[in-house]
Amino acid sequence: MKLSQKPSQKLSQMLSQKLTLNQPRLSTRQPSRLAGQIGAVALLISSCFLFSNAANASAPEFPHLETVGSSEILVSPDMAEIVVAVRVEAANAKQAKAESDKAVAAFVSKLKQAKIATNDIASANLNLRAQYHYDKENGRQLTGYEAHRDITVTVRDLNMLNELLDSALEQGINHVNQINLKSSKEAQYKQQARELAIKDAREKAQAIAKSFDTQVQGVWQVRYHDYQVPKRHTEMRAMADAGAINQSYQQGQIAITDTIEAIFRLQD
Question: Where does the sequence pass through the membrane (predicted)?
Fold first, then answer.
C-alpha cells in the first residue's frame, strides 16, 4: 500500500507560514525616530553654545566693577485710598442685588455731599453668587444668594477719613478691607529716590575701587527696572474701634524706594 504525500506537504507548508509570521520585522520608523532624537540633541548643544557665546559677548573684556544702588525715603502721607465693601444675603438674587445697590448708592451720595470728586469714586462692580447647604440625605440645596460690591475711594484730605468710614458703616457698608496711605507728591519723591540710588551705586564703586588701589573711569552699562512703589497700609474690619482707626492712619508712613544696577570701568 502506498502512503499519500499530501498531508505531510500541507504540514510543511503550514509550519513554513508560521515561522514566517513569527519572524521579527524591522520597523522602517526606527531610523527616522533615531534621526529625530539625534537632531534634538544637536539642537540642544547648539543652543547651549549660542547662549554661552551671547553671555560672553555681553561681558566686558576690560577690568570692571558691578554695584547695586538702593534708596529709601520715608514720607508722611497726605491722602489715602480706602476699599470698603457690602455683602448682602437674601432669599433670591434680585433682592440681594437690590439691597447691595441701595447701600452703595447711599454711601456714594454721602461721598458727593462731602465734596469727594466723581473721579475719586469707583463702584461699578457686582459679584452675585448662589448659596448652598450640603447634607448627606438631601445633597446640595439652594439656601439663597449673596451680593458683593466693592467701593474704592481716594480721600485727598486725611482729616475726613474717619468721618467717611463712619458714614460708610451708617449707610450699610459692612466691610472695611483696606486703607492705603499715599502721597500726592509721589512722583517727586520717586525722582528723589532714583537720584539717591544712582548716587549710592556710584559711591559704592568709588569706595571699592579705592580699596583695591584703582579708580573708576566711567560707566559702561546701567540696568534699571521701574518697580512699583511699596506702600505700608492698614487692614481693619468694620467692627474696629474708631479711635484705633484714627491713630492707624494718622501715624503711618510710606516708603518710597528705588534700585539701580551699574557696571563701572576700572583703570587698567
Answer: none
